[in-house]
Write a sequence for this structure.
């Protein structure tokens, strides 16, 4: 009997799939609710500064005159307090974690003038844009998102009006 | 009289997940005395309460421990809510209880894995953690975090779980029962495992009382001390629950208590999911805390104690946690007396040491 159960375990083990995630081969499945990183739809931002005041880690800086919103990803604790407190709901959490960086810098988004199409531009130099970073979904970028995802492996110049290029 | 030697144990040691140092005084192979010393990973989290607003501090409170993260967040919220006379909605109580009991399952499965690893049973370690992964996936789906949930806030909880999702969780947990039983039975039936646990690290009932042990440590010495039976901040009183106890007083008993608590928690969550009422998940919090208050909470490792003091400003003046490991260290020293040197890792592991919590 002992031998039989032993054999059963071995045979079962031979034909079972591994229980671990085959991560580099298969992409990680991230639930929608996962708090990976904060993203902003900067065109809708009213620079009220509520997120800056409520952030427990002090990671967000809002500059009213420059209409910019910047976040220190290394200080952010992904608590989503800013998302809960945003009056215009232009902040959201994305499941994908922020890409690792070599320099501790803020990531800055600047609101463009109303005449131009919706953009979210990264002003920070020195942070390499990751090829795998998914396209951020501003309405203008939504159409090009599929194309961007396909060509994401090749280095590309970010066209104006596309929010895909931030790291 | 044998040869008297003092062996340093830790702070870096293969069985220790976290740094604690023990000076083990040996007579030949028998431990006659153990002198613990801590202070390797003090982080000063209590002091930070003066630097952060009381509503923000909950994010720091839950970073006290990576395993009972939800419990520490709840304990802090509970003490502040007590101070400010806030009655949280019933649904929030249910959700807190569900998350906390899930934490207990995850903590105990993690501990069982470490225990198996400590005795060199690698495959059992991996299987315990495989089961734990299912609980972490539930956390990921319901709160958005695997370890730090940020789900608790003063006045309730920040996230609701939809009823359909709750029933899905109940289904997963019902499916887990047999798997957990299959894995945990090995601890009690496998002769190699039993010989490492049985009659090792005896902590008598009297010694458990005298050293003020808490949690599974004291329950394995035959004392049904479990704060959950009296806890009104959760919904334990509405659930069918009795503290798990055994009177074997040894490592085997402590292992048994934790395994039975996994099943008890699985049961409790399923009951809570059936009874959970609809309604709000949080109440608005107005004003600032003033005065002092203490609260208790049964963590996976035992009873934790939270003290807060406010002066009617947005910042509390004092926050103090007394963690379960803090209380269990004297009991561990007591249990180490007279044991074999080779059994020291098992005994140290059976208190489920969480030194980061203890030093905060």
């Amino acid at each position: 009997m002992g031998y039989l159960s032993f054999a059963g375990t071995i045979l079962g083990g031979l034909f079972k799939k591994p229980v671990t995630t085959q991560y580099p081969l298969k992409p990680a499945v991230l639930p929608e609710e996962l708090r990976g990183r904060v993203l902003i739809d900067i065109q809708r931002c009213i620079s009220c500064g509520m997120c800056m005041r409520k952030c427990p880690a002090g990671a967000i800086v809002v500059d009213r005159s420059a209409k910019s919103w910047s976040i220190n990803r290394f200080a952010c604790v992904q608590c989503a307090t800013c998302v809960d407190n945003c009056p215009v709901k232009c902040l959201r959490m994305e499941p994908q974690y922020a890409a690792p960086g070599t320099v501790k810098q803020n990531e800055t988004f600047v609101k463009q003038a109303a005449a131009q199409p919706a953009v979210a531009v990264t002003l920070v130099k020195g942070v390499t844009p990751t090829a795998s970073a998914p396209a951020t979904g501003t309405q203008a970028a939504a159409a090009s998102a599929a194309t961007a995802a396909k060509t994401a492996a090749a280095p590309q110049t970010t066209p104006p009006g596309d929010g895909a290029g931030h790291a | 009289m044998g040869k008297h030697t003092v062996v340093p144990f830790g702070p870096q040691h293969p069985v220790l997940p976290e740094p604690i140092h023990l000076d083990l005084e040996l007579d030949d192979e028998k431990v006659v005395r153990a002198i613990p010393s801590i202070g390797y990973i003090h982080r000063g989290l209590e002091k930070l309460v003066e630097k952060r607003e009381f509503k923000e501090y909950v994010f720091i409170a839950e970073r006290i421990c990576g395993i009972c993260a939800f419990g520490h967040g709840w304990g802090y919220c509970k003490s502040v809510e007590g101070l400010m006379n806030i009655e949280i909605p019933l649904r929030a109580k249910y959700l807190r209880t569900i998350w906390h009991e899930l934490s207990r399952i995850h903590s105990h499965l993690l501990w069982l894995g470490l225990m198996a690893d400590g005795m060199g049973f690698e495959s059992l370690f991996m299987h315990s953690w495989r089961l734990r992964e299912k609980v972490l996936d539930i956390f990921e789906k319901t709160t958005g975090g695997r370890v730090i949930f940020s789900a608790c806030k003063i006045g309730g909880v920040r996230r609701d779980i939809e009823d359909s999702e709750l029933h899905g969780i109940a289904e997963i947990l019902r499916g887990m029962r047999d798997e957990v039983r299959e894995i945990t039975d090995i601890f009690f039936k496998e002769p190699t495992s039993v010989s490492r646990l049985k009659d090792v690290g005896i902590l008598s009932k009297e010694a458990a009382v005298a050293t003020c042990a808490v949690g599974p440590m004291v329950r394995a010495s035959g004392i049904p001390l479990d704060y959950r039976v009296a806890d009104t901040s959760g919904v334990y009183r509405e659930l069918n629950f009795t503290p798990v106890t055994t009177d074997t007083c040894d490592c085997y008993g402590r292992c048994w208590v934790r395994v039975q608590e996994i099943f008890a928690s699985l049961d409790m969550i399923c009951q809570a999911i059936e009874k959970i009422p609809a309604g709000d998940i949080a109440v608005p919090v107005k004003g600032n805390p003033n005065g002092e208050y203490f609260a208790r909470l049964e963590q996976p490792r035992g009873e934790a104690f939270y003290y807060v003091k406010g002066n009617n400003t947005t910042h509390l003046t004092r926050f103090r946690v007394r963690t379960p490991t803090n209380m269990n260290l004297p009991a561990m020293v007591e249990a180490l007396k007279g044991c074999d040197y080779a059994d020291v890792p098992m005994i140290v592991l059976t208190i489920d040491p969480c030194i980061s919590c203890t030093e905060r």
About this structure: Strands of chain B lie at 4-9, 21-27, 30-37, 152-153, 156-157, 290-299, 302-311, 316-322.
